[in-house]
Amino acid sequence: MHTCPMFDWEAAWHAALYGPGGFFARGEKPSSHFRTSPLVGPELALGLLELLSRVDAALGSPPVVDFVDVGAGGGELAFAVRSLASGSLAARLRVTAVEVGPFVDLPGVRWTSSVPSCVGLLVGHEWLDAIPCPVVTGPSADPWITRWWPSLADGEMAEVGAPRDAAWAAAVSSVRGAALAIDYGHLVSSRHFSLTGYRDGRQVPPVFDGSCDITAHVALDACAAAAGGDFVLVSQRDALGALGLSGEVSGSGWDWLESASRAGRIAELRSVRGLGSFGWLLHARGVALPDLLPVLPPWRPNPASYSGC
After folding, report:
1. Are the C-beta atoms of residues 120 and 92 closer than 8 Å to each other?
2. Residue 155 burial by CB count (10 A; 0-12/13-18/19+): exposed, middle or buried?
3. Which among 101, 96, 61, 70 is positioned nearest to 81, based on CA atoms?
4. Distances (CA, A) of 110 to 42, 75, 96, 106, 124
5. What pLDDT digit, counting tens, does each position of 15-47 carry?
6. What is the C-alpha separation between 198 and 55, in angstroms, rounded?
7. Which Gene3D superfamilies match (predicted)?
8. b/e map 165-184, b = 16+ CB within 10 Å
């Protein structure tokens, strides 16, 4: 990594991902480089459909109900939600995928490059970690660092999460219903420099030539405060359990095999040493949080789940 004090980390990061010849600008999709929850199977989409149905009921079943997937990548999650929706919800459902790169033609999915207004559920699944940030070295008088990374020691490096806070606050402000950020991250009590790269399924040094995805942990507590309002921050493990994904095995014969396969996929999504320790930051907008999720333990990130740089 470049360590020159005058190096503009945020600009280089942005160019490497979204500039001409950038990693995402040229059409690379996350599914080609690392495993995410939508790629495990249909269970994440089913959990989000259950959450959307609760949002829909809390809104009084509007004529059109939105599912907006921000940072949609190849559209896997958006398409799964569109395909698995049923009943009255399916008849009223409008699915929108938001992405800056080339769009993928998927039946029933609208594409856009900017976050639209949403009456329903907006989801940013591993979106915030792909928003470039400035990088500073301690000590730093940056206001964001002063509030959200007060333990930064001399010579230590830190990602300044202010651009992510602003992006999330803007996205939440477009919503009537609920907004959900799903990402890996850290809290003010456990900050650590985490800038890293991914290429072809492997973690690699973060180089800014467009050859790899560049990412860093999300300060979800800071994002929550920036967006404000009523919110909860819980683990993916607990949230999916509360949405009915328990992974029980039942039946016999082929039914048992399908049940066991589904249980295995749910176990991967809820693993405390992997995807289950992702944070779910859920904001209620014009609806009551208890109508969406019961009271759950607060999120505690598991540092062993992620490989920082």
Report:
1. no
2. exposed
3. 96
4. 20, 10, 5, 8, 16
5. 999 999 899 887 766 655 566 888 888 999 999
6. 35
7. 3.40.50.12710
8. bebbbebbebbbbbbbbbbb
Q: Which helix (H) or strand (E) holds 70?
A: strand 65-70
The amino acid at 201:
G
Work out the burial of residue 128: count CB atoms within 10 Å of its CB; fewer than 13 is exposed, 13-18 middle, 19 or more buried.
buried
Could you give the 3-state DSSP secondary structure of residue 105?
coil
Q: Which domains does the chain have, with CATH numbers?
A: 9-245+275-305 (3.40.50.12710)
Tens of pLDDT, residues 200-250: 878 899 999 999 999 999 999 999 999 999 999 999 999 999 999 987 766
User: In this structure, which amino acid lies at residue 222?
Assistant: A
Give 136-158 pLDDT, tens digit per residue: 999 999 999 999 999 999 999 99
Distance CA 120, CA 80 (A): 17
User: Tokens at residue 284, please?
Assistant: 């209620």
Residue 30's DSSP bridge partners are none
Q: pTM (2 decimals)?
A: 0.93
